[in-house]
Amino acid sequence: MTLSTRGAQAPAVLVLEDGRAFRGRAYGAVGETFGEAVFSTGMTGYQETLTDPSYHRQVVVMTAPHVGNTGVNDEDPESGRIWVSGYVVRDPARKPSNWRSQRSLDEELAAQGVVGISGVDTRALTRHLRERGAMRVGIFSGNAIPDEGTLLARVRQAPEMTGADLSAEVATKEAYVVPAIGTKKFTVAAIDLGIKGMTPHRMAERGIEVHVLPATATLEEVYAVRPDGVFFSNGPGDPSTADHPVALMRGVLTRSTPLFGICFGNQILGRALGFGTYKLKYGHRGINQPVQDRTTGKVEVTAHNHGFAVDAPLDQVSDTEFGRAEVSHVCLNDQVVEGLQLLDRPAFSVQYHPEAAAGPHDAAYLFDRFVSLMEGQRA
What we know:
The protein contains 10 helices and 21 strands. It is an alpha/beta fold. The strands form 3 sheets. Strands 11, 12, 13, 14, 15, 16, 17, 18, 19, 20 and 21 form an 11-stranded mixed β-sheet that branches. The protein is globular and about 65 Å long. The termini are far apart.
């Protein structure tokens, strides 16, 4: 990625790996960037999306036409930086209008060196990605943009998301503790594969002291904190490369410690149980995805960011090394597996984001379900 100063009037072009191009204006930093083109269907919550480590090495296309209306503040980020590789919007706000705003989105993107493009027909781009699938993309801006044929060749040299091992690139390097709010009831070891800040906060609200550990943590380091439960977080990349987290989770399952995983953690549980994973055509991203909890029949509106899924049978209980397992949640749009649970050990996972930052609160009960598992184990 090469960068220069902010320049909203500079010309820009977006080039997909299949050769289609969209022209617009620079938004954020001026320069060039590469990543996987994906689209997010959320109408709000762009600040949480930008700072979600799961979006590492992805160029996010916003389907909502107006972006930046509420500006940027210092309270809503989900991590210490913006993780998206690039940002694509149709009509950026000329001026933010919100009492919590401290600066504009354009200014924040430029300050963090994120190359974006505005003035793009994001509806046409989204339809193209739905038909052709997520693919590599480059955004180029400035006054001396080479011809599109030259740019296309550079896009096709960029790494693909399939086979990418990225969780260690976004995870914490040092362990840290998020203290329980109020009376401490439990201790949880949380494996950081790209964790969002709201996730340990949701556990802390329930009296859990959360020890956030690096993605490279060993089984001995996990149990050194004397956990009542173990949590595996969301994160970027291809789950087929995550051999260390899978081995770590298998160690936790062997000890029958209560276990909860979300997003990447769901895929890790799938692999630990012997299921495969596969890449979705264009993935699920946004805060309006319908999911059914098959254990209750309830339908939830949920927040997603995943381009891979678990390949597990929807209509039967599976026998695994760790006992019987079943699909607990399913996406109602396409029948993709959105959750797993073991029937003979205290372990479950979901593919979406119950911490609800940003997004609906329908799935907050899952943290309570985790608490119930730890209560049951203690009893």
